[in-house]
Write a structure and sequence with these properties.
The chain has 258 residues and is α/β, with parallel strands linked by helices. The chain has a single domain, classed as UDP-N-acetylmuramoyl-L-alanine:D-glutamate ligase. It is 35% helix and 24% strand. α3 runs parallel beside α4. The N and C termini lie far apart (35 Å). The relative contact order is 0.15.
């Protein structure tokens, strides 16, 4: 029998806590009626308190993982998260060039692992022109645009790469209200706001970006996809679980949310 649910490819790290990365994507996408094909970019050593180290998958192996799935399965959307090397960027760029019609959502998570000096330049030059949506925090936006003096300037510079849309989100713990601003080449499209929750979370960004990707895979237009993804993510955070001694983990299973 054919699978009726959209199939989403997630390229991300393996987080052994199950809070972020591929585990977050599989759980989020499954709860939003999508099937996830997980592609491993790195294997992390971490707990709910600290990131210690990671084993990085070689670029050629990453590319082979993607290609064998794309040649076999009809993928509705691709989500990219925590790419660790310029070799990853080059390999993914090569693959995506052969599949230009698949929506690509990039959540680079630049703070997750140490990156090479030319990583940001490679990301902007090779992957952002292939992105349907780039999701970054305000700090990440400045990190990607050396010399920009405002978020609006950051947006212009990032969209000049050829990126179709840009979502700049508040930095964690930046006030009572969490704001996400959606930019297109014509300027600011919409500003989303929601109540900022007081706790520290592990996997919140992965959950949000995966939820956006899920709604895009279902054919939802970008602005309502972001709004619905924020509602889903906020509920997951409001009902977060404490699995260990560190940050809380989003509760991504709707049946267990309050």
């Amino acid at each position: 029998m054919p699978i009726s649910s959209p199939i989403v490819m997630s390229v991300a790290e393996l987080d052994p806590t199950g809070a972020g990365g591929l585990a977050a994507d599989i759980e989020t996408l499954g709860s939003l009626a999508c099937h996830c094909t997980p592609i491993v970019s790195s294997i992390n050593i971490q707990d709910t308190q600290h990131f210690m180290d990671c084993a990085i998958i070689e670029g050629t192996l990453l590319m082979e993982q993607m290609r064998v799935v794309l040649e076999d399965i009809n993928i509705a959307a691709i989500k990219l998260h925590q790419l660790a090397t310029t070799a990853h960027i080059e390999s993914i760029h090569t693959v995506l060039t052969d599949y230009p019609t698949i929506p690509v959502i990039i959540d680079p998570a630049l703070w997750s692992v140490p990156v090479e000096d030319d990583f940001c330049d490679a990301l902007c030059a090779l992957l952002l022109p292939q992105a349907t949506l780039l999701v970054v925090t305000a700090q990440e936006a400045f990190d990607l645009t050396a010399g920009a003096d405002s978020l609006t300037a950051c947006a212009h510079e990032l969209l000049d790469t050829g990126c179709e849309n840009l979502l700049i989100c508040s930095d964690p713990g930046s006030g009572e209200t969490y704001t996400s601003k959606l930019f297109s080449p014509t300027g600011l499209e919409h500003s989303f706001q929601w109540q900022n929750l007081p706790n520290d979370f592990l996997g919140a960004g992965s959950t949000f970006a995966a939820a956006i990707t899920a709604f895009v895979a279902h054919g939802v237009q970008l602005r309502p996809a972001i709004r619905q993804a924020q509602e889903y993510t906020w509920k997951a955070l409001a009902n977060a679980k404490r699995l260990g001694m560190g940050r809380l983990v989003p509760n991504r299973l709707p049946g267990r949310q309050g």
